[in-house]
Amino acid sequence: MKQYLDLLRRIKTEGVVRGDRTGTGTKGVFGHQMRFDLAEGFPLLTTKKVFLKGVIHELLWFLAGDTNIKYLVDNGVHIWDNDAFRYYNELCVRHGVLPVDRDTFLRAAQEGVESPVEGYKFGDLNHVYGYQWRSWPKPDGTVVDQIAQAVGLIRSNPESRRILVSAWNVAEVEDMALPPCHVLFQFYVAEGKLSCQLYQRSADTFLGVPFNIASYALLTLMTAQVCGLQPGEFVHTLGDTHLYLNHLEQVDEQLAREPRPLPVMRLNPSVKSLFDFRYGDFTLEGYDPWPAIKAPMSF
User: Fold this and answer.
1) Residue 281 phi/psi, 5° resolution?
2) Is 266 assigned a ligand-binding role in the annotation?
3) What positions does the entry give for (6R)-5,10-methylene-5,6,7,8-tetrahydrofolate binding (predicted)?
4) Is 298 annotated as a binding residue?
């Protein structure tokens, strides 16, 4: 994962300090690209442990078209809790409803309870990633399943330059609990290999980017398998690429560590549909990371 460590060094050396919506402050660059040959191993960061359970469950959640945190919370993944709770509180203010506390909110989300806010179920995030991937709304009231469409194109017209999936729905982005950071990805088939390029508009380089790399690399492996192809490259193109100022000490600790060999990700070969994968269908071999580095969150 030299590519990632080189990015950290670039931000530290060339980065510009700017303000941000959280009030924490960032140091960052604009425009960066990393390339990962998936034949060389699964690009899971080894200079700190990455929460792979969260990567897998979130990706399965996206692919299911789900936009409620119940599935994630049921499986011990809490990466969307803060956004869901913040969004709920914003709705309560807007509708003049007294909000419940966070613990009550999470329990209600697990139980699938309707809230006093009309039309809102506890844990909903509105039309975030999964909805746009699987149910992009059309003016006539029908929807587009972008994932199924992409898989169909890979199989029927692999040289197409239109194998794209977008999460940035301009008409709905302001109503989402969180506007998508990873906004667009494109598949590319050549010489029997499937590659994927992601454009990410905003990149929390210390906490988020290792997670994003693993997620889209895994999506590429899964899609390649169900389309009868070998995995090629994952290309990660970043827009606003930043480190929060309260992460700089942890970045130095990470850069002092020597990268270890990449692990191998094995998929259950019997799975033939992208929508049939389950958590138990993934086996990571040879992962020997340095310990996780604790870092403060910025909201």
Assistant:
1) -85, 5
2) no
3) 204, 298
4) yes
pLDDT tens, residue by residue, 32-60 = 999 999 999 999 999 999 999 999 999 99
Residue 162 annotated as binding site: yes
Q: Which of 92, 181, 196, 227 is catalytic?
A: 181
Q: What is the pLDDT at residue 297?
A: 65
Cβ atoms of 174 and 166 closer than 8 Å = no
pTM for the structure as a whole: 0.96
3-state secondary structure string across the chain? CHHHHHHHHHHHHHCEEECCCCCCCEEEEEEEEEEEEHHHCCCCCCCCCCCHHHHHHHHHHHHCCCCECHHHHHCCCCCCHHHHHHHHHHHHHHHCCCCCCHHHHHHHHHHCCECCCCCCECCECCCCHHHHHHHEECCCCCEECHHHHHHHHHHHCCCCCCCEEECCCCCCHHHCCCCCCEEEEEEEEECCEEEEEEEEEEEECCCCHHHHHHHHHHHHHHHHHHCCCEEEEEEEEEEEEEEEHHHHHHHHHHHCCCCCCCCEEEECCCCCCCCCCCHHHEEEECCCCCCCCCCCCCC
Q: Is the pLDDT score of 227 beyond 60?
A: yes
Q: Does the annotation mark 227 as catalytic?
A: no
